[in-house]
Amino acid sequence: TTTLAARVQAVKPSATLAITARAKALRAAGKDVIGLGAGEPDFDTPEHIKDAAIAAINAGFTKYTAVDGTPELKQAVIDKFKRENGFDYAAEQILVSCGGKQSFFNLAQALLNPGDEVIIPAPYWVSYPDMVLLASAIPVLIHAGADQAFKITPNQLEAAITAKTRLIVINSPSNPTGMAYTRDELAALGAVLREHPNVIIATDDMYEHIRWSTEPFVNILHVCPDLTPRTLVLNGVSKAYSMTGWRIGYAAGPTDIIKAMTKIQSQSTSNPTSISQVAALAALQGPQDCIGVMLAAFKARHDVVVERLNQIPGINCLPTDGTFYVFPSVHGMIEQLPGINNDVELAEHLIENAGVALVPGTEFGLSGHIRISIATSQSNLDQALERIARMVG
Ligand code: PLP
User: Fold this and answer.
1) Is any atom of ligand 1 closer than 6 Å to the C-beta of 125?
2) Are residues 281 and 294 in the same domain?
3) Residues 203 and 327 in one domain
4) Gap from CA of 30 to ligand 1 centroid (Å)
């Protein structure tokens, strides 16, 4: 067999994508499997966005663009930050990439040296630790359980920072927990970071628009604007506009880091797809009511799912602040099921015997939990919950 690069052995394929693929394969083989693994909205991309892309194709906008995105899309991103967040960025502070995933990948490649430490609050989005490892750097996890609403404390942060800490990522609202940091919590974390000027901050705002609160969205820069010179804001159109397949994300931050990230991108993918950039432009500049439609559906499902989960013996589910995930504790359920010792075995048991596919919490860095995606129809959710409930009699 071929000897592959050590870096390949250091990482694993995305667990969430794997579960979704497994559910699909089982379904194709005729098995009745309800997929609760999806990391994407179950809505179609809004019509006006698709129309813009079709028009772009017909107009021949099908060639390379500037690596960092078209001037029009970059301006739309600048306008978005101004309009929605009150942030001021110049064009050289913006990089458009092939999804939010590439934004973080570019950042890791541009910033990290071997041995550098990256603080990742756990539970975490599955890709952060592996992308850090691909950059030969070291993920340093801070564990935040249900007792602290899956959010790290300033004391934990202080204790995790060393002379080697180069980066911290804050993802709020969070995949997989659905929790968002409050203004005060962000201010307290910012107060710690203020004392450690070598630490770069990445705020992953991918779920900015999928929140239940009517309070305006906040990230760390809203409460600690003095951290702007060392903070990257990562966002994208994937989740807000149901555009996961189009692959458009964007980053804003200090010019030197953005430039370095652009250089990495120029030698890997070049520009994001020209057609998708036109679609993203339409998303950012067009009517925003499509977001509200999806949000209302997610909120309604969330309320039902959290209530029903808590009625199942052995499951404990905190209500979330947003996203389309809930992250219940299943410790009690594991105890009731003979032969099942942990969340990984439980997820396996559920897919094999109950026809419910979901991702075990261990994949996100917190065992004893499962992640349920509510990005599927209410009737699918009803059936899946029924099946899970039946497992524990
Ligand atoms: N950040 C978080 C927290 C996510 O959950 C995701 C997608 O699952 C992404 C970033 C990347 O999204 P995409 O690459 O599809 O734009």
Assistant:
1) yes
2) no
3) no
4) 30
Question: Are both 239 and 366 inside the same structural domain?
Answer: no
* Cβ atoms within 10 Å of 197's Cβ, excluding its own: 10
Asked if residue 164 is part of any domain, the answer here is: yes
Structure tokens given for 373? 């995606």
pTM equals 0.96
Helix (H) or strand (E) holding 55: helix 47-58
For ligand 1, is residue 365 a contact (CB within 6 Å)?
no
Same-domain pairing of 322 and 360: yes
Q: What is the tens place of the pLDDT at every residue in 46-91?
A: 999 999 999 999 999 999 999 999 999 999 999 999 999 999 999 9
Can you tell me which residue has the tokens 């942030």?
87
Is 238 touching ligand 1 by the criterion CB < 6 Å? Answer: yes
- Whether residue 317 has pLDDT greater than 90: yes
CA 323, 314, 308 angle in degrees (round to 5)?
50
62 Rama sector, left if φ>0, alpha if ψ -120 to 50, beta otherwise: alpha
Choice among 97-101, 160-164, 314-318, 349-353 with the minimum mean pLDDT: 349-353
Centre of ligand 1 from the C-alpha of residue 337, in Å: 34
Dist CA 151 CA 142 (whole Å):
9
| Lookup result for tokens 């994208």 | 236
**3-class DSSP state of 96:** strand
DSSP annotation of 66 reads -
Which of 202, 140, 205, 150 lies closest to 177, judged by CA? 150
Q: How many Å apart are CA 42 and CA 174, to the nearest integer?
A: 19
In Å, how far are 11, 234, 238, 271, 279 from 64, measured between CA atoms? Answer: 31, 23, 21, 7, 16
Domain-embedded: residue 107: yes
Same domain, 229 and 350: no
Distance separating alpha carbons of residues 185 and 163, to the nearest angstrom: 24
Sign of CA dihedral 376, 380, 386, 391: negative
Which numbered atom of ligand 1 lies nearest the CA of 237? 16
154: containing domain: 63-285
| Domain match, 144 and 270 both | yes
The finding on whether 100 has its CB within 6 A of some atom of ligand 1 is yes
- DSSP letters, 298-352, are HHHHHHHHHHHHHHSTT-B-PPPSBSSEE--B-HHHHHHSTT--SHHHHHHHIII
Q: Interface pTM (ipTM) of the complex?
A: 0.99
Whether residues 76 and 33 share a domain: the answer is no
Q: Are 363 and 321 members of one domain? A: yes
